[in-house]
Specification:
The chain is of the alpha/beta class. The chain has a single domain (about 5-245), classed as Alpha-Beta Barrel (TIM Barrel). The chain is about 35% helix and about 30% strand. The protein has helices at about 30-40, 50-55, 65-70, 85-95, 105-110, 110-120, 155-160, 185-195, 205-215, 225-230, 235-245, and strands at about 5-15, 15-20, 25-30, 45-50, 75-80, 100, 125-135, 135-140, 145-150, 165-170, 200, 220-225. Strands 1-4-5-6-7-10-11-12 form an 8-stranded parallel barrel, surrounded by 6 helices. Helix 9 (about 205-215) links the parallel strand 11 and strand 12 (about 220-225). The longest helix is centred in the N-terminal third of the chain and has 10 residues, at about 30-40. It is globular and about 40 Å long. InterPro entries: Aldolase_TIM, His_biosynth, HisF, IGPS_HisA/HisF, RibuloseP-bd_barrel. It catalyses: 5-[(5-phospho-1-deoxy-D-ribulos-1-ylimino)methylamino]-1-(5-phospho-beta-D-ribosyl)imidazole-4-carboxamide + L-glutamine = D-erythro-1-(imidazol-4-yl)glycerol 3-phosphate + 5-amino-1-(5-phospho-beta-D-ribosyl)imidazole-4-carboxamide + L-glutamate + H(+). It is an enzyme of class 4 (lyase). One of its GO terms (cellular component) is cytoplasm. This is Imidazole glycerol phosphate synthase subunit HisF.
């Protein structure tokens, strides 16, 4: 059985790590390069960097930040935010990123998924999906959760897989920053529908939430931000806890 992965997420705005609740009310959480180095040393399996101002303000993810991070860590990391072309991805990979995450650009131009998978391989392509429940339906949102679409989460996830994505990063906007647990029911349905890994995002608050998302939610990886940034959950202790629950994890 493949080991489950613990992935700290660093939301970047103006070169700093920030964290909010339900995608708003941002507060500073530190220098991203220093945080990345700390997480690599303390047992994180991967890292995700999302330039949350890039899509909104039409800026490109800073390649020099990627380069500085790559020099400091020895674990895989994914970069997202404002990526809309093969050229964007080429620059990020050349500067040391292992994978890229696309979100709004994939919805606006689904063929981009095919192009990136063909050029760089599916293992490089993570499609991030932000969704929340509206009238009982999981609806995909864009631009940091500000713009609703007509897309259904599950139908879009299946299309994304068919176009060559290597992983899905699903963030429940209803759960994001609440520390009330992941959207395990939706995650389990995604895992049953798809043949590619699903990363759970949004809602981590306790160690039990990670256990739940790996068991009930059938997630392949769990991503969190504030509980790690603000030292509410210690990754080495979390991994020991998961191991004690017979969840396959890399210590």
């Amino acid at each position: 059985m493949l080991t489950k992965r613990i992935i700290p997420c660093l939301d970047i705005k103006n070169g700093r790590t920030v964290k909010g609740v339900n995608f708003i009310d941002l507060r500073d959480a530190g220098d991203p390069v220093e945080l990345a180095a700390k997480y690599a040393e303390t047992g994180a399996d991967e890292l995700v960097f999302l330039d949350i101002s890039a899509t909104e303000e039409r800026r490109k993810t800073l390649a020099d930040l990627v380069l500085r991070v790559a020099e400091k860590i020895n674990i895989p990391f994914t970069v997202g935010g404002g990526i809309s072309s093969v050229e964007d991805v080429d620059i990020l990979l050349q500067n040391g990123a292992d994978k890229v995450s696309i979100n709004s650009s994939a919805v606006k131009n689904p063929k981009l998924i095919n192009e990136l998978a063909a050029k760089f391989g599916s293992q490089c392509v993570v499609v991030a999906i932000d969704a929340k429940q509206i009238n009982g339906k999981w609806t995909v949102h864009l631009v940091g959760g500000k713009v609703p679409t007509d897309l259904d989460l599950f139908e879009w996830a299946q299309e994304v897989e068919s176009r060559g994505a290597g992983e899905i990063l699903f963030t429940s906007m209803d759960h994001d920053g609440t520390k009330a647990g992941f959207a395990d029911e939706a995650l389990a349905r995604l895992s049953e529908l798809l043949n590619i890994p699903v990363i759970a995002s949004g809602g981590a608050g306790t160690m039990q939430h990670f256990t739940d998302t790996f068991t009930s939610g059938k997630a392949d990886a769990a991503l969190a931000a504030s509980v790690f940034h603000f030292h509410e959950i210690d990754i080495p202790l979390l991994k020991l806890e998961l191991k004690s629950k017979n969840i396959p994890i890399r210590l």
